[in-house]
Each structure stands twice: as structure tokens, then as C-alpha cells.
């Protein structure tokens, strides 16, 4: 199999699209960990909820875009509810307890979805305008994948603007660094945490919703995504949003090219990449001191 | 220290008392297990329902040998260790006829253990129990031998779809079985093999392979994967324009797959299955089964339900014939000579390898015309004479074995 | 306060002595119960409880006693299972060699993870261990398939012990007692380790790492050793698991196994010695029985676990120990 430049370009594009899902998941996870010190072991579950919410919304209104927005909003609210009623009680205890609570949630929710939606997966279709691909000679440009890349870029831009330019973003950044101080300044840190958690969950839901047309949408679809999201976050450096984004992009390319050249190793490559980066930079790409 | 000893003795006495009240009779006639939780729950549920239908049907007629028959169904969680534990527990409680499972790999593990312990095992899935060194006297299959669906589909494909072909195969025994079957048939009819790609189980993204496949321009692409891998592949190939240009041949397809792929499962997708519910039009014996299943569960039965149903049904038939519900040494010979005509025409367990001789149906997708449970069209049915290799060949694995051991690209 | 009371206050302040005695007794009670367990519940379940209890205890060496969160313990278990199975399958060795190989396998992975992550704290260690374990899973599944048989499980021939006397491991009861004796010895060994100065240093690290470092202990070396011990005992559990199953199955390595051992340990109580053992027994028993009534047992297990974390974070045994402790110490002075 010769590697023409068209194949390489295609792989890069596929890798970017793959990376888009990773970036969305990892940024959400990074925000939650950075702000709340919680390793959200239910992150994949919210990804799955995003896909199911998307399915439900589209069944009700028939429009992909409305469904997308609805899915993100609904699942973020569910996340917020979880945070306020259950997760909040465990702040301040040993780091392992919030982690385990999330883990328990990740076991609990898929079964609820099985009962509500049945065992057979659901179909989410591509929106009409993004179906198919444009063919430029031997080059295939799938419209939906390009949309994913554009979406990722927009989301990253929005996050950047949000974090750096808005006051809420500033508060979140401050609370990530020093929650005591923020509290002393009279800001209700508790509410900041809820907002941050919902933001992180919203990103996971978005990832699930846009992934839904491409993969099997079943209640267990998020199980493996949690681990992969963590790998991306570790590569990028715990607590660094930029690192999560870069890590996601790198991983997307790695998986894309390894799938092409040595499919056997495509699943392992994620972890080997992580191991390699950790050996070279033990804190990840942009990991910060003391963020252990 | 003394208090400690007393406590310990008390605990021991209580336990012994507990143990002595344990019941002596086995709690059921047959113990089944399927991966009811986990990602294959939809298929496992079908198998379980098939078994339950058979039990209900026999008990309505008065049971087996005059007494109602009872079965236990447990969750194997798609894990070999859990499946083994369930089987061991059944045997521990006195049941020595066990059945089930969905994973060929786990079936082999159970089969090995069952044969070691002289327990009758009725496997209901696609597996390679009847082949090579994995065969055991105590194992039976109402699923199918894995290579048979591949062979049937290959026959059909080379005749109707073209001669140039490629394959994407999941990198484990079942996947390899299909590749071997296609390679064998390809050589027989002069097919042109263009290449193989092996993907690990759990592959979510198949887009990387599209350019190479399009470049080689095969007439059809064999997709020897299953479960979520298959759904992802079909959806993505539809998205990327592959299935509009190349026909897809699926050695194993099922109703959940068709439903989950939606419109991507179009007229260019051909799949092999052991059964499909519209077969009642050809086999009138199947109609009551389809009707009562649909009435009870709100949907028509799928191949897995048929597998579970026939598995349980034939066990009960054999018990009647042998005149015993528990003596495995008598039931096995009864099974070996058993002939029946249930959902699929006249069938039997081949004596030499205990595999059900069933036809394989080739299904064509309906794409956007699919509605409700009408997801595919039966366009061919391949008899076992064309797919099953002679017994001695299979037991010695002389045909597929060498091919499997030297798969191209591995 | 009288002079006598004052002396008692100062000289009898040994924070873990009453707890140590309690745990010691609990250990013997549990082991005694273990002798009759196969007559109370099914033999396979009893054997599994023993194996996984050992695994949980090994896991808790890190979590409860050293304060390191490991989410990749399936890696040690799986490495032990595959190492033990492969030497039997390819080398035709006996059971004892298999168990030694299993311990070596677990230790090897522990060295790997230790080298990569011992200096990392909390979240990093958890993530790295999780990733390494998951990598091992995918390695065994695909690229190394020809040695591990991947999805199809590496199946073993019937096994028996020949030395010091013949035990036919195909018999479920004999298998149980064989596993039980080894697990009991391992539990006693762990008790010895934890009662030693090394064990006390581990507790110190959990409580206040900086202070222990200030006292002159080499934290990294101690943590590394702790990881090694944990890997060793987990590997042993893995080897026993392979013998019990008669096969090394790929699902042992999946990350859910790591998650479940964490759940079992926390269920029993991570700040105790016997907690993990008790937690494992309760968890496996419940899981086995709930799934007899419903396919959706994961929902119940998940819900109960969340309730446990919120209401009784010390776990079953941990809460009992805590209550006993509260009754022992009068509230005043």
C-alpha cells in the first residue's frame, strides 16, 4: 500500500476529526479536575447521555441542530443536579470519595438507560447538509468530519474567550488556583463549582452527541471513553486546558496513522504515547507544579 | 483469646447447621447462562426468550416425562470467569446439563470444562466447537459452526456479487474463521483476493481503511466483524461513500445490527444469518413460534431466539426419547440421532461433531425502505450440504486449519 | 485528674493497639469461617471470594495503608494470571512453579508502574496505573494474541498438585481448600508485613508524608517497596485465579476489574486490615444474588455503592471498628 499524499492528507483530516472528540472530552474532564479536584469517572457516562439526549431530542423535533443544543443543555442540567445533590457532599474528604461516587454513577446510569430505551442501540442520522463526502480526485473529504474539526475549533475558541475574557471565566480560573482566596473575596465558590462541573459535563455531552451518528449508540458506549479521556488529560498535563486540547489533537493523529499502518496496535498506541510523553515530560505537556 | 476461640467454634457450628439444611435435589433440569448485562444484552435477551418459549411450550403439553420442566437462566456478564462460575455453581447444585452463551471464545472455555467434568453442554452461539481439537463428546451446538456462515455467504457472493474481494476481519478466532472460509471458496471459484486488514475488537473508527479499499476497487468487501465494530463500520462506510461503490458482505448479521445502522444498511449490504423471521412463509412450522413470540414480546424473534429455542427444545426431546431427565450418558446418544422440524425445516445434530445441520440465509438490506421489524429481505438460502465440510475433515481441521494458520497479512 | 489517670493517658497512647488486637482477632475469625465457607455458599463462589479477597488486601496495601490510589490493579492480577497460565501452557510446569511465575509477573508490572509513577501523587498515579493496565489489556488482546490467545482465553489442561501430597484440582472442594490455604498464608504474611516497622512507616506516609520524610525515611524507596508487595500478592491472586478458572481470560485485565476491587475494598473499609476481605465477600455474594432476580443488577450495585460512599465512607468493617472505638474512648478529658 503506497502512501500517496492524498492518503496522508486524508489520514490527517480523519485524525483531526478523531481528535475533535478527544479534545471535547478531555477539556471537560480537565475543567472538572482543575476546578474541583475530582477525577470524574463518570465522564464517559455523560458522553453516552449526550448521545441519547440527542436521539431523544431529534425524535421529538426532527432537527439535528436543535437536537444538538438540547442534548448539551439537558445533560449539563443533569450534571448540575448530580453535583448539587450528591457530589458536593464529598468535597473536602479524601480525594478518593468523589472519584468513587462518580464511578458508582457510571455503573448506575447505563442500566437506567437500558430500562428506559431498551437494549438495542439507537440511530442518530447525519444532518442532511452534512451527509456524504466531497470527492476531489482521489481525495475524500467527508463533510461531517470536517464539521467536527470546525466545531472543535469553535469550541476551543469559545472556551478561550470564556476563560480569559469573561468575569465568570476569570473566577473559574481563580478558583482553580486558590479557592480559599476566592471565597474570602466574597464570591460563592460553591456556585462556581457547579457552573464549572456543568461546563465540563456539557463538553462531554457534546462529544457524545456529535459522535452518535458515527458509532453504535448503546448504553455502554461511554465505558471505554472515560479511560481514553483520562489518557489525553494526563498527556496534556493535569489541570491544563490547553494541554488537554493539544493532547487530544496529538492522540487523534496517532490513532489515525497507527490504524492505517499497524491496525493491531491502534488501541495500544494511545497508552504507549502516554507512556512515552511521561518519560520525556513526567508532568505531561503543560502540567503544572503542585498540581498532583 | 478464649472469647475468640468460642466465637470461632460458634461460627463453625452455625455454618455446619446451615449446610445440613441445604436441599438435596437439583433446583432445575437445565442451567443456562447468557451475557444479559453488558454490550451484547440485546442478543442474549433473545436467546433467553427462545429458551423460555420452549419451556412454556413443553410445559403446556404436560412437561417432559410427565413432569413440568424447569430451567435456570443466569447472567454471564460476557466474562469467561463469571460464565465458568455460573456453570460450576450449576454443577455444584446437582444440575449436569448446562447451556448457553453468546461468545464463541467463552463457549470454548465452558466446553473444555464441561468435557473435563462429564457435563452436557448445549452451546447456542456461533462457535468452533465441532472443529479440530476443541471438540468434545459432551458439547453440542445449536448455534452454528462459525465458518459455515462465511462459506455460505462466499458461495453467494462469488456467484452474484463479483470475483474481486477484500476483507476486514476482527482479529480473533471467529474473524479468522470467516477469512479462511472466504479464502477457501475463493480458490475454488477463481476469485481474486485483493487484501486483508485485521482490526482489534473494539475498533470504533474504520475511516482509515476507506482510501485503500476504494483504491483497490473490489467488487465486494467482506466485513468479518460484529457488534459495535460492525455498526460503526457500516455507518462510517455509508457516510464516506464506500457502500455506494462497493458491496458489503457480512458473515454474521442480526436484527439489532440492522436497526442500529438505520439507512446505512442499504441494498448493497448482504449478510448471512442462521435464521430470519420471515422464514415462516417458507417453513409453516415456524409460524406459531413467530406469532406467539411477537405477541409475548412485542417483536418478532431473531436468529438468536431460534437458537435458544431449538437448543432447549431438542434437549427436552432427547430427555423424552432417553427416558431420563438427568442421565447424561443416555441423553447424549438420544441427541445424536435426533431429527426435528421446528423453525427451519428438517434438521438434526450431526453425530460425529454434534453440530446442528441448518441452512444459512442470505439477507439483503432494505435501506430507507426498512420499516419497523422489516429490515431485510431473504434472497437466498444455502443448505448445509454446501457449507458443512465432512466430519473427518472438520475434526482433523485439515481444510480450514492450515488456511487459518497462515492467513495473509498476519 | 488523678496521678494514675495521668500516667495512663501518657503511657497508653498507642493509637492502633486496640485496633490491632481487634483486627488480629477478626482475621482469625474470618479464616475460621473460611474453613467452612464452601458448605455455606457454593464452592465456586467461595473460591472466588478467597482469590478476590487476597487481591483486595493486596490492593489495600497501597490505598488504605500507604495512601496511594491505584486504578490499574487489574494489571497485576492479569499479569499474574497470564504469567502463571503461560508457563503451564508453554512450559508444562506444575502448579507451584506456576504460582511463582504468577508472583513474578505481578512484581514485574509493579516495577514498571513503580518506575514510571512512584514519585507522582494522587491523581497522577491513579491515571498512570490505569493507563498501564489498560495498555496491558489491549496488548494481550491484539498484538500479543499469538501468545495469550486474546479474546479466546488461554485454556489450561487439568491441573493437580503433586507435592507434598496429591491434590486433584478438578475437584471443586479440593480446589477450594488449596486456594484457601495459600490465601490464608498470604494474609498472615501481609499481617506480618504491616505489623513490622516497614508497615508502620507506610501508615506514617499515609497520615503525613512530609513529616515522615523529615524523620529521615526514604519515602520513594518505601513507596516503591509497597507497590512491589502489592504487585506480588496481586500476582499471586492472579495465578490462583487462572488455576481456579482453568484459563487466563482477557476480561481479568479490563479496567472494570480495577474499579471493582476499589469498590470491594471501600465497601469493607480501606482504613482497616480485614475490611477488604469482608467487603469482597459481601460484594461478590450480593452481586451473585441480585443478578438472580434481575438483569439490571448493575443499577442496584451502583446505587448501593453511591449510598455507601455518601453515608458510610468507612465501609462495613470500618464503620464497625469506628463505632467500637467510639465506645472505648469516653467523650470527656
Biggest interface and its residues per chain?
A-C, 48 and 40 residues
Question: By helix and strand content of chain B, what is the structural category?
Answer: alpha/beta
Which ranges of chain B are low-confidence, i.e. pLDDT below 50, for 5 or more consecutive residues? 17-23
- Distance between the ends of chain B: 64 Å
Beta-strand percentage range of chain B: 15-25%
What's the name of the CATH homologous superfamily of the largest domain in chain B? Response regulator
Average pLDDT confidence of chain B is 88
Instruction: Give the CATH class of chain C.
Output: Mainly Alpha
Q: What does the overall shape of chain B look like? A: globular
Which CATH-level-2 architecture of chain C?
Orthogonal Bundle
- Here the CATH topology of chain C equals ABC transporter involved in vitamin B12 uptake, BtuC
Largest sheet of chain B: 7 strands, mixed
Question: For the report, how would you describe the main beta sheet of chain C?
Answer: 2 strands, antiparallel
Mind telling me the C-alpha Rg of chain B? 23 Å
Morphology of chain C: globular
Proportion of helical residues of chain B: 40-55%
Spatial sequence of strands, sheet with the most strands of chain B:
9-8-10-11-12-15-16
Order of helices and strands of chain C: HHHHHHHEEEHHHHEHHHH
Measured distance between first and last alpha carbons of chain C: 9 Å
CATH class of the largest domain in chain B: Alpha Beta
Number of beta strands of chain C: 4
Keywords, please?
heterotrimer, A: 292 residues, ABC transporter involved in vitamin B12 uptake, BtuC, two-stranded antiparallel ribbon, B: alpha/beta, Rossmann fold, 2 domains, 7-stranded mixed beta sheet, 5-stranded parallel beta sheet
Amino acid at each position: 500500500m503506497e502512501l500517496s499524499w492524498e492518503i496522508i492528507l486524508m489520514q490527517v483530516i480523519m485524525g483531526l476529526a478523531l481528535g475533535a472528540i478527544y479534545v471535547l472530552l478531555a477539556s471537560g474532564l480537565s475543567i472538572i479536575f482543575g476546578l474541583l479536584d475530582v477525577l470524574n469517572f463518570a465522564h464517559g457516562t455523560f458522553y453516552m447521555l449526550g448521545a441519547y439526549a440527542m436521539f431523544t431530542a431529534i425524535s421529538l423535533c426532527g432537527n439535528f441542530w436543535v437536537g444538538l443544543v438540547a442534548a448539551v443543555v439537558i445533560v449539563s442540567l443533569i450534571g448540575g443536579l448530580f453535583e448539587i445533590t450528591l457530589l458536593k457532599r464529598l468535597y473536602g474528604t479524601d480525594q478518593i470519595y468523589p472519584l468513587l461516587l462518580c464511578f458508582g454513577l457510571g455503573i448506575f446510569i447505563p442500566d437506567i438507560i437500558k430500562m428506559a430505551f431498551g437494549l438495542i442501540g439507537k440511530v442518530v442520522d447525519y444532518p442532511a447538509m452534512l451527509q456524504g463526502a466531497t470527492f476531489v480526485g482521489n481525495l475524500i473529504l467527508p463533510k461531517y468530519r470536517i464539521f467536527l474539526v470546525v466545531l472543535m475549533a469553535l469550541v476551543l475558541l469559545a472556551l478561550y474567550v470564556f476563560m480569559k475574557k469573561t468575569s465568570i471565566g476569570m473566577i473559574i480560573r481563580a478558583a482553580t488556583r486558590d479557592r480559599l482566596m476566592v471565597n474570602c473575596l466574597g464570591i460563592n465558590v460553591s456556585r462556581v463549582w457547579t457552573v464549572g462541573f456543568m461546563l465540563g459535563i456539557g463538553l462531554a455531552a457534546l462529544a457524545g452527541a456529535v459522535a452518535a451518528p458515527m458509532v453504535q449508540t448503546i448504553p455502554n458506549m461511554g465505558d471505554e471513553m472515560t479511560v481514553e479521556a483520562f489518557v489525553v488529560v494526563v498527556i496534556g498535563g493535569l489541570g491544563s486546558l490547553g494541554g488537554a486540547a493539544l493532547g487530544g489533537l496529538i492522540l487523534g493523529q496517532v490513532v489515525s496513522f497507527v490504524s492505517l499502518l499497524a491496525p493491531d496496535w491502534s488501541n495500544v498506541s494511545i497508552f504507549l504515547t502516554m507512556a512515552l510523553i511521561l518519560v520525556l515530560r513526567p508532568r505531561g505537556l503543560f502540567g503544572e507544579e503542585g498540581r498532583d | 483469646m478464649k472469647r475468640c476461640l468460642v466465637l470461632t467454634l460458634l461460627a463453625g457450628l452455625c455454618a455446619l447447621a446451615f449446610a445440613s439444611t441445604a436441599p438435596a435435589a437439583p433446583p432445575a433440569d437445565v442451567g443456562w447462562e447468557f451475557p444479559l448485562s453488558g454490550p451484547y444484552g440485546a442478543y442474549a435477551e433473545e436467546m433467553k426468550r427462545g429458551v423460555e418459549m420452549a419451556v412454556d411450550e413443553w410445559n403446556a403439553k404436560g412437561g417432559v416425562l410427565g413432569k413440568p420442566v424447569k430451567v435456570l437462566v443466569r447472567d454471564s456478564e460476557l466474562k469467561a470467569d463469571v460464565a465458568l462460575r455460573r456453570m460450576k455453581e450449576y454443577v455444584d447444585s446437582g444440575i449436569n446439563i448446562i447451556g448457553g452463551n453468546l461468545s464463541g471464545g467463552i463457549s470454548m472455555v465452558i466446553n473444555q470444562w464441561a468435557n473435563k467434568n462429564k457435563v452436557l453442554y448445549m452451546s447456542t452461539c456461533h462457535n468452533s466447537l465441532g472443529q479440530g481439537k476443541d471438540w468434545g463428546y459432551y458439547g453440542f451446538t445449536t448455534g452454528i459452526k462459525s465458518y459455515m456462515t462465511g462459506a455460505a455467504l462466499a458461495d453467494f457472493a462469488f456467484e452474484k456479487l463479483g470475483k474481486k474481494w477484500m476483507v476486514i476481519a476482527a482479529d480473533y478466532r471467529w474473524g479468522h474463521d470467516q477469512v479462511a472460509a472466504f479464502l477457501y471458496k475463493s480458490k475454488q471459484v477463481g476469485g481474486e483476493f485483493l487484501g486483508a486488514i485485521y482490526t482489534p475488537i473494539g475498533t470504533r473508527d474504520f475511516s482509515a481503511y476507506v482510501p485503500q479499499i476504494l483504491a483497490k476497487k473490489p467488487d465486494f468487501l467482506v466485513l468479518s466483524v460484529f457488534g459495535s465494530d460492525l455498526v460503526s463500520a457500516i455507518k462510517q462506510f455509508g457516510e464516506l461513500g464506500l457502500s455506494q461503490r462497493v458491496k458489503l458482505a457480512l458473515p454474521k448479521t442480526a436484527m439489532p445490527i440492522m436497526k442500529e445502522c438505520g439507512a446505512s444498511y442499504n441494498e448493497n449490504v448482504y449478510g448471512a444469518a442462521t435464521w430470519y423471521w420471515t422464514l415462516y412463509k417458507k417453513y409453516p412450522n415456524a409460524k406459531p413460534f413467530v406469532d406467539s413470540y411477537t405477541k409475548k414480546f412485542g417483536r418478532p424473534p431473531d436468529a438468536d431466539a431460534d437458537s435458544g429455542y431449538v437448543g432447549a427444545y431438542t434437549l427436552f426431546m432427547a430427555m423424552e426419547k432417553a427416558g431420563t431427565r438427568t442421565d447424561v450418558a443416555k441423553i447424549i446418544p438420544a441427541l445424536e440421532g435426533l431429527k426435528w422440524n421446528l423453525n427451519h425445516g428438517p434438521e438434526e445434530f450431526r453425530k460425529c461433531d454434534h453440530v446442528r445441520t441448518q441452512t444459512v440465509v442470505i439477507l439483503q438490506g432494505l435501506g430507507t425502505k426498512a420499516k419497523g421489524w422489516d429490515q431485510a429481505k431473504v434472497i437466498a438460502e444455502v443448505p448445509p450440504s454446501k457449507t458443512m465440510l465432512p466430519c473427518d475433515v472438520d475434526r482433523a481441521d485439515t481444510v480450514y486449519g492450515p488456511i487459518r494458520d497462515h492467513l495473509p497479512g498476519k | 485528674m488523678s496521678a494514675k489517670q495521668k500516667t495512663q493517658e501518657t503511657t497508653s497512647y498507642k493509637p492502633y493497639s486496640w485496633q490491632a488486637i481487634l483486627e488480629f482477632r477478626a482475621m482469625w475469625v474470618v479464616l475460621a469461617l473460611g474453613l467452612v465457607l464452601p458448605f455455606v455458599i457454593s464452592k465456586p463462589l467461595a473460591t472466588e471470594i478467597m482469590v478476590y479477597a487476597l487481591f483486595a488486601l493486596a490492593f489495600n496495601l497501597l490505598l488504605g495503608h500507604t495512601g496511594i490510589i491505584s486504578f490499574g490493579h487489574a494489571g497485576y492480577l492479569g499479569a499474574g494470571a497470564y504469567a502463571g497460565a503461560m508457563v503451564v501452557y508453554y512450559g508444562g510446569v506444575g502448579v507451584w512453579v506456576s504460582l511463582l511465575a504468577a508472583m513474578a509477573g505481578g512484581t514485574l508490572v509493579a516495577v514498571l508502574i513503580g518506575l514510571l509513577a512512584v514519585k507522582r501523587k494522587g491523581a497522577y498515579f491513579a491515571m498512570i496505573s490505569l493507563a498501564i493496565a489498560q495498555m496491558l489489556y489491549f496488548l494481550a488482546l491484539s498484538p500479543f494474541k499469538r501468545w495469550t490467545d486474546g479474546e479466546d482465553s488461554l485454556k489450561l489442561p487439568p491441573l493437580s498438585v503433586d507435592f507434598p501430597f496429591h491434590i486433584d484440582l478438578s475437584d471443586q472442594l479440593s480446589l477450594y481448600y488449596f486456594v484457601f490455604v495459600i490465601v490464608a498464608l498470604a494474609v498472615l504474611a501481609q499481617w506480618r508485613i504491616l505489623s513490622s516497622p516497614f508497615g508502620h512507616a507506610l501508615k506514617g506516609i499515609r497520615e503525613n508524608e512530609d513529616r515522615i520524610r523529615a524523620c529521615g525515611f526514604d519515602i520513594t524507596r518505601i513507596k516503591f517497596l509497597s507497590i512491589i508487595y502489592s504487585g506480588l500478592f496481586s500476582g499471586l491472586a492472579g495465578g490462583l485465579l487462572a488455576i481456579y478458572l482453568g484459563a487466563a481470560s482477557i476480561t481479568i485485565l479490563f479496567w472494570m476489574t480495577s474499579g471493582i476491587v476499589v469498590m470491594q475494598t471501600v465497601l469493607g473499609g480501606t482504613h482497616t486490615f480485614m475490611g477488604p476481605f469482608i467487603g469482597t465477600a459481601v460484594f461478590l455474594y450480593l452481586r451473585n444474588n441480585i443478578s438472580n432476580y434481575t438483569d439490571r443488577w448493575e443499577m442496584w450495585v451502583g446505587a448501593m455503592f453511591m449510598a455507601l460512599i455518601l453515608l458510610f465512607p468507612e465501609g462495613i468493617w470500618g464503620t464497625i471498628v469506628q463505632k467500637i472505638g467510639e465506645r472505648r474512648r469516653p467523650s470527656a478529658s
